[in-house]
Amino acid sequence: MHxxxxxxxxxxxxxxxxxxxxxxxxxxxxxxxxxIALLGMLAQTMVGGTLVFANRFDPDEVLGLITxxxxxxxxxxxxxxxxxxxxxAFPDTxxxxxxxxxxxxxxxxxxxxxxxxAAFPNASFVQGYGMTETAVIVSLLxxxxxxxxxxxxxxxxxxxxxxxxxxxxAQALHLDQPARPSAARGEFP
Length: 189
Known about the structure:
alpha/beta; AMP-dep_synth/lig_dom; Rossmann fold; single chain; 5 helices
């Protein structure tokens, strides 16, 4: 069970790193209310913003919500972004209000990300990596998220409230690679 404190630390830590909300902002929530994606969106209410809830993911409804509410921030998974920009109504939809898209829950193919960055030209993209069961957003990739960025396929950097370490089960070690000391710092191979 999570404490109020653990949830608040996760909200503040992830938001401070992703910079995905601000005073007066509007965040679109498309994930179930128990999902970790909601934690990041709850921060919008802490700074005087608004949450807009989609009943379920339906591209028509979501495009309408973006337009009607001038959504600034949204969370998504790769297939949702793909369904949005491939939707027949997308070319006629004003998505210029969207300033931040946080995605996760599945690997993001480079072609899908490139197309999404072109489709939402005013948006910064942030990949979140975490787990609903732990209520922790472990890492986020924000500043490195530029078309063709060297770290574009990375899981990101540890968020402000998280520490990461590489733990490898002894039987899973590759014999052709030297083992890393457990306290080694730096990038994971």
